Amino acid sequence: MTKTSSLPPIHVIGGGLAGSEAAWQIAESGIPVILHEMRGVRGTDAHKTDGLAELVCSNSFRSDDATSNAVGVLHAEMRLAGSLIMRSADANQVPAGGALAVDREGFSAAVTAALEGHPLITITREEVTGLPPEDWDQAIIATGPLTAPSLAEAIQARTGADSLAFFDAIAPIVHTASIDMDICWFQSRYDKVGPGGTGKDYINCPMDEAQYNAFIDALVAGDTTGFKEWEGTPYFDGCLPIEVMAERGRETLRHGPMKPMGLTNAHNPSVKPYAVVQLRQDNALGTLYNMVGFQTKLKYGAQAEIFRLIPGLENAEFARLGGLHRNTYINSPTLLDGSLALKGRPGLRFAGQITGCEGYVESASIGLLAGRFAATERRGETPSLPPETTAFGALLGHITGGHIVSDDEPGKRSFQPMNVNFGLFPPLEPGTITKPEGMKRFRGKDKALAKKQATAARALEDCARWLGL
Ligand SMILES: Cc1cc2nc3c(=O)[nH]c(=O)nc-3n(C[C@H](O)[C@H](O)[C@H](O)COP(=O)(O)OP(=O)(O)OC[C@H]3O[C@@H](n4cnc5c(N)ncnc54)[C@H](O)[C@@H]3O)c2cc1C
């Protein structure tokens, strides 16, 4: 560790998963940190303790398989980067099969002790009620999905009313390769080209009358999750869950997100579809498509089952399923530069779930990156960004630029929070995976697994190089 503690401190606001990791990375690089955490003075609707990095719900960090699972790769990259969150998780692991699950109290206690014991970290228990003052020239806001209201208002005042969302209305996202294009076709409604479009921007799934009716019946009968009290979020116009729309009348969806107008089935041009489900490109790579207007509160199991009734999606693989829950996140692709700094306010970064990632591990990893970027800048250097082939880079790319702005729905947000998944990684170079010797047919599950393994191996190699290991 290079001790350069004569440098001014970096302020980190929020001692959750992201803020704790950011503080650790900064201090380990020899720069002092002041970590501002409000719990102890003011609580949130979900946290129960004053411990740093409290896990508010599940105690799982999900798969620990770094050979073929994207979150497992992220674990491995964080370990390579000296993550405090991963070190504390590993030290407090409880049995959970292939997943990394932790004793939540032991985990939070380990993080808290490490930060409290670090000579370069000062922890202040206070609520930060506005944007960091100008003299906090390097600061990170990592206040999470339950950011206290006055800070949230200040962020909204600085970034614009449309730039801060207070809950997710999430439509499912599908891996493009799992969509059956012998049934579906590319076309924009009325072949509209629009600014930046081609006239063939959507993937369309056709339904006849019987298929539509069966789908509506399944939606209405589907198992939904209930709102928890802390969520308290009313529906608002333009964001009704599809099952609620279906309940309002059999024809509602056919006149809403599933209207067939302006679309001609390329595989069967003479037959007009009765209804159409549209999917819109979700990332710049085109490896993911989201189901337009399909925000839902259906339980995950019910979603997968019901959405696979849609012609062309029978074998759909979901990068994420839909949901509706309390969250606070900014429109990062518009507001942040590639190193997570607010455009127009150099030195002020965001990290964690408030940037539009989802989950404990993802939040901590974005804290790790923000901490490293801030520390580099404090030393007067320019941050080096992780390669987009790494899990760090793939997630950062999603947050700061990977989404597609929707030109045809002015006023609607298209950036949605996301867990890390292989759909965010750039495709492999052609020829990277070849048929194993002795194997007759190389496709389906075997090929998909080989792709994941090659993507994971490439990520870890590139990450080690980026870290200078
Ligand atoms: C109810 C609920 C359940 C969830 N369940 C899961 C789950 O099971 N698995 C999963 O992976 N993810 C879950 N999440 C998402 C989870 O919150 C994030 O993955 C993760 O905690 C985000 O990390 P973070 O550091 O961004 O935010 P947090 O961990 O929430 O940390 C933010 C910190 O900032 C503090 N803070 C807020 N405002 C201020 C302020 N103005 N001044 C000072 N301090 C402030 C808070 O007290 C908190 O300690 C859940 C979220 C919620 C709300």
TrEMBL record:
Source organism of the structure: Shinella fusca
What protein name does the entry list?
Methylenetetrahydrofolate--tRNA-(uracil-5-)-methyltransferase TrmFO
Does this UniProt record's set of keywords contain Magnesium? Answer: no
Q: Which ranges of the sequence are coiled-coil? A: none
Question: Cross-referenced HAMAP family, in alphabetical order?
Answer: TrmFO (MF_01037)
Q: Which GO terms describe its cellular component?
A: cytosol
EC number, as in UniProt: 2.1.1.74
Query: What are the entry keywords?
Result: Cytoplasm, FAD, Flavoprotein, Methyltransferase, NAD, NADP, Transferase, tRNA processing
> What does this chain do?
Catalyzes the folate-dependent formation of 5-methyl-uridine at position 54 (M-5-U54) in all tRNAs.
Reactions this protein catalyses: uridine(54) in tRNA + (6R)-5,10-methylene-5,6,7,8-tetrahydrofolate + NADH + H(+) = 5-methyluridine(54) in tRNA + (6S)-5,6,7,8-tetrahydrofolate + NAD(+); uridine(54) in tRNA + (6R)-5,10-methylene-5,6,7,8-tetrahydrofolate + NADPH + H(+) = 5-methyluridine(54) in tRNA + (6S)-5,6,7,8-tetrahydrofolate + NADP(+)
Q: Which PANTHER family match?
A: GLUCOSE INHIBITED DIVISION PROTEIN A, METHYLENETETRAHYDROFOLATE--TRNA-(URACIL-5-)-METHYLTRANSFERASE TRMFO
- Is NAD one of the keywords UniProt gives this record? yes
- Which of the seven top EC classes does this enzyme belong to? transferase
Co-factor requirement: FAD
The gene for this chain is trmFO
* GO-annotated molecular function: flavin adenine dinucleotide binding; tRNA (uracil(54)-C5)-methyltransferase activity, 5,10-methylenetetrahydrofolate-dependent
Listed InterPro entries: FAD/NAD-bd_sf, MnmG-rel, MnmG-rel_CS, MnmG_N, TrmFO
Q: What is its main location?
A: cytoplasm
Q: Which residues of the sequence carry a binding annotation for FAD? A: 14-19
